[in-house]
Amino acid sequence: METWMRLMASDGSIVFGRVESGYLHEYEGLDQPIPTGAVLSLRALTPLAPCAPGKVVALWNNFHALAAKLEKPVPEHPLFLIKPAASVIGSSEPIRRPAHYAGKIVFEGELGIVIGKRCRDASLEEAEAAIFGYTIVNDVTAAGLITENPHFPQWCRAKGFDTFCCLGPAIVSGFEWEHARVVTRLDGVERQNYPLDDMVFTPAQQVSLISQDLTLEPGDVIACGTSLGVGSIGNGATVDVTIQGIGTLINTLAAAREERASMAAEESANG
After folding, report:
1. Does residue 247 register a pLDDT over 60?
2. CA separation for the pair 216, 31 (Å, rounded)
């Protein structure tokens, strides 16, 4: 297995590469995994979301255990929505509560598939080859908005706010997802602990079937869906999502007024 990260240097430039023994071995990019020869200390770099997806394809009802609890039939094709690029943040970045929304905000710990090659109408073999690696996702949702309008379920709006797609802390290639579990903790209390081998569609099947509907580009992410234990996040609460072999994704929900004050202070400091 190899670990990959995307980070910001002190001059504001963004670098991507393979992490080994506290150093980043820089590569041209996720879509061009060619080493530049540069080796940088991680201590001089600020971690970002490990990729910058043009889109995040988020699955629903992709685990047998959750389908059984919800009394929903197992789908024949992946059921998904699209989260926008602006919703993506990295580990340790705050989730921002929308200023106009005071309702329930929900965490969903998930495995994320990171696409490494342009993919359209892919066979299972082509789909497997198109997977660069795996990351962790917290698919945040403003749950109260989904059914706010009785005539139109608002899945994309509820899941598409800025900061509502937490990714990280790294991408791991060669990861054996079949033997892993997703463990989600809310302020240190375990809320989710489920096996990834309970997925309805394997990662290769997801990539293949979704590529029949839309083109997947390098850096795009497929959030594999969640299982039992989803719950709400209170203002100031911290969600940790851990997948052994990838790491832990950590994000805290900031209240809208706290976030506005923080942003104002930052703008003032920057002149």
Report:
1. yes
2. 12
Whether pTM > 0.85 for this model: the answer is: yes
Instruction: Please give the Cα distance from 39 to 65 (Å, whole number).
Output: 44
Is domain 55-269 given the CATH code 1.20.1250.20 in the classification? no
Residue type, 20: E
Domain ranges for the chain: 2-46, 55-269
Q: For residue 255, which phi and psi values (nearest 5 degrees)?
A: -65, 150
d(CA 4, CA 48) in angstroms, rounded, equals 11
Q: Whole-angstrom Cα distance, residue 157 to residue 216?
A: 22
Structure tokens at 3: 């670990």
Q: Return the biggest CA–CA distance within the chain.
A: 56
**Residue 164: CB atoms within 10 Å:** 24
Say whether pLDDT at 261 is over 60.
Answer: no
